[in-house]
């Protein structure tokens, strides 16, 4: 990586007054983008290109429900940037999906793929629905109709979706089948996060949580701390949070609090994460777990700990509660859990933040491995997948840390600087087609 040169005596602190609408995810992303673009002295033309998504598709999804009534849902797919390769990004089913959220997540995917230097662009998609109130048949019909609605953009060389909030391997299997039926032959590289039997990669399910564990270990080493005995709090006990907690516990950490949408549990003596995962498998949620003391999803963020892993939703750490965060390290397992305004407060408190576009990039990295294996028709062992993931995550952390220390900026700003410089370089090399 060529060094990005700035005056080394420059200390950068974002201005809190710039963040007037901190709960809007797209504006929060753009606040970080603007700051990095300013530091990079980004060319005005490239700035304009990178500040706008390439394409946004909004489709109506009429579905026959089990009751016999027809409901019409809204689906969105945003292709933010494809200068470095096919668009890559998950599809979420949630009643709170919005255009601004999808655009922000598509931009984050662009920077995330660039920061770990994999040849993908960024995209994101979503369907506005409440999947918890829908049957398997209804979810399948929504998925297949949504896939048909955005099929013009899908393809191994153009747009490769993956699971996200409230979607999973089964949803990706439906998407792959729908696409394959339309083109007349099986195309398993059109999506990642598939069942292993359909070409999914070993290690993919654990990849995002594993990436969080690896970057946390690197951060603690940088700070002169050990994983052994480090106390960990995890908000969000879904796929990312539960696996991150389990892997950190395997490394010697003491997980003292966990939570999901029903609330959480705090035990200073430590929680057996494997037991908690088994409980959720049997009971669907942590409700009634009764290990330690009950704690709310708001209060869990403010517990005394070495490592805080917000792995649930966007904007859970804001200017309203950032001053009460007591963790030494925040590892962002979710996308956008910290608002732009809260960054300044965490900086002032000396909290080391591993930003989302680095911390949770393990998922898209192994998605890239899955796509490569699909295209080559040759599949790797889980050991090989994990070794290659570790190499990329450790190297990426080191590159961001080097930039952070060189220019005396926080890790988030350094991550944006690194990723934006990589994307802008490709735009300069490719030029503007006219």
């Amino acid at each position: 990586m060529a060094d990005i040169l700035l005056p080394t005596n420059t200390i950068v602190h974002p201005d809190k007054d710039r963040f007037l609408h901190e709960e809007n995810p797209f504006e929060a992303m753009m606040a970080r983008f603007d700051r990095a673009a300013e530091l990079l002295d980004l060319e005005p033309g490239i700035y304009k290109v990178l500040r706008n998504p390439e394409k946004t598709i909004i489709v109506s999804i009429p579905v026959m429900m089990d009751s016999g009534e027809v409901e019409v849902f809204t689906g969105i797919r945003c292709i933010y940037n494809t200068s470095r390769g096919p668009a890559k990004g998950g599809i979420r089913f949630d009643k709170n999906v919005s255009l601004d959220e999808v655009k922000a997540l598509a931009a984050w995917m662009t920077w995330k793929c660039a920061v770990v230097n994999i040849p993908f662009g960024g995209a994101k998609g979503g369907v506005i629905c409440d999947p918890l109130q829908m049957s398997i048949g209804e979810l399948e019909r929504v998925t297949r109709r949504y896939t048909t609605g955005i099929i013009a953009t899908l393809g191994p060389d153009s747009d490769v979706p993956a699971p996200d909030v409230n979607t999973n391997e089964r949803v990706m299997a439906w998407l792959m089948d729908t696409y394959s039926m339309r083109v007349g032959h099986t195309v398993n590289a059109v999506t990642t996060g598939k069942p292993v039997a359909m070409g999914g990669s070993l290690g993919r399910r654990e990849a995002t949580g594993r990436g969080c564990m690896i970057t946390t270990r690197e951060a603690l080493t940088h700070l002169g701390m050990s994983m052994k005995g480090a106390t960990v709090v995890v908000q969000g006990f879904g796929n990312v949070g539960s696996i991150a907690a389990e892997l950190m516990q395997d490394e010697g950490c003491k997980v003292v609090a966990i939570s999901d949408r029903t609330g959480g549990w705090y035990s200073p003596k430590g929680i057996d994460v494997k037991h908690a995962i088994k409980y959720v498998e049997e009971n669907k949620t942590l409700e009634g777990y009764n290990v330690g003391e009950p704690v709310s999803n708001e209060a869990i963020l403010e517990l005394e700990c070495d490592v805080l892993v917000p792995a649930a939703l966007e904007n859970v750490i804001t200017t309203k509660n950032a001053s009460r965060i007591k963790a030494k390290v925040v590892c962002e397992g979710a996308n956008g859990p910290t608002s732009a305004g809260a960054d300044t407060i965490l900086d002032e408190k000396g909290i080391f933040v591993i930003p989302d576009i680095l911390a949770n990039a393990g998922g898209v990295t192994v998605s890239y491995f899955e796509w490569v294996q699909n295209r080559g028709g040759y599949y790797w062992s889980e050991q090989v997948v994990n070794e290659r993931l570790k190499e990329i995550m450790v190297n990426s952390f080191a590159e961001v840390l080097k930039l952070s220390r060189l220019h005396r900026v926080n890790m988030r700003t350094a991550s944006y600087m690194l990723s934006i410089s990589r994307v802008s370089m490709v735009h300069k090399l490719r030029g503007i087609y006219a």
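The two ends are 31 Å apart (CA to CA). Residues 1-20 have pLDDT under 50 and may be disordered.
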